[in-house]
Amino acid sequence: MAQVVYEFPLNEKVRNYLRVEHLLGLLSEPKKTCEQHTEIQFFRDFFALLDLVERIDLRTELLLDLHRYSVTLNSWLSHPNIDKKRIELQIELVCTISEKLKESKRIGYELKSDRFLTAIRQRFSIPGATCSFDLPKLHYWLSLDKNTKQSNLHQWLEPLTILKDAIYLALEFIRNREELSDVSAENGFYQGVTDSKIELIRVQSSQTTLFYPTLSGNKYRYAVRFMKFSQNDNESTTVDETVTFLLARC
Asked: How would you class 223 by CB atoms within 10 Å of its CB: exposed for 0-12, middle for 13-18, buried for 19 or more?
């Protein structure tokens, strides 16, 4: 049975991490972008990512979380019956990425000097302003051969590699804090208590069900409510039956 995982951040930091991860995932296959002629959507997602990382201080947050991850990994080395070699390799990876992040310039800084990107970026904030009369330079670029465009996409994504690696490790650290376990929600509603250490609620349910979870929460408590899905109704209705699902408080 197919399963789908929903993730609900409990603070602004993790919310930003997940948004960056989502956008990086959309940009991860330049080859497919050129083959499917979805370059316009690539630029929309790319500029959305740049807008996000320029607005927030990801670097400081990531360095703090990677330091916490390293401390946790080092503490595991003293535990009996643990794969020390695997832990040491992970510690080395965390330290390497942390050092690269420290040495790097502000995320996305190199892309500000790219004249082509600078010339077209502002127009993407205007609805429908990617027509040939708005951006003739872009439409000329779109007519170039696939290999040239693919090479350009890789070139623009390269400065974001360290961000991708750091986000992946930071979210891995958070997600691995607790495994998913069975929970029942009477009348489609479940409530729990949280604390400052819990930053992410993960909910896994069957993809074949006709309902989906929503979450409300703060630093003291959270609530998961399942809603019936319908494309025809103006509003979704709450589930009035017991729902069994998997939950992790990370």
From this structure: middle
Fold classification of 178-249 (topology level): YacF-like (2.60.440)
CATH number assigned to the domain covering 11-174: 1.10.3900.10
Mean pLDDT of 172-188: 94
Q: pLDDT tens digit string along 213-233?
A: 999 988 789 999 999 887 766
Q: Is the pTM of this model over 0.85?
A: yes
pLDDT of 203 above 80: yes
Every domain of the chain with CATH number 1.10.3900.10 lies at 11-174
Closest alpha carbon to 16 in 91, 94, 92, 107:
107
Burial 67-103 (b: 16+ CB within 10 A, else e): eebbeebeeeeeeeeeeeeebeebbebbeebbeebee
Q: Give mean pLDDT, residues 112-139.
A: 90
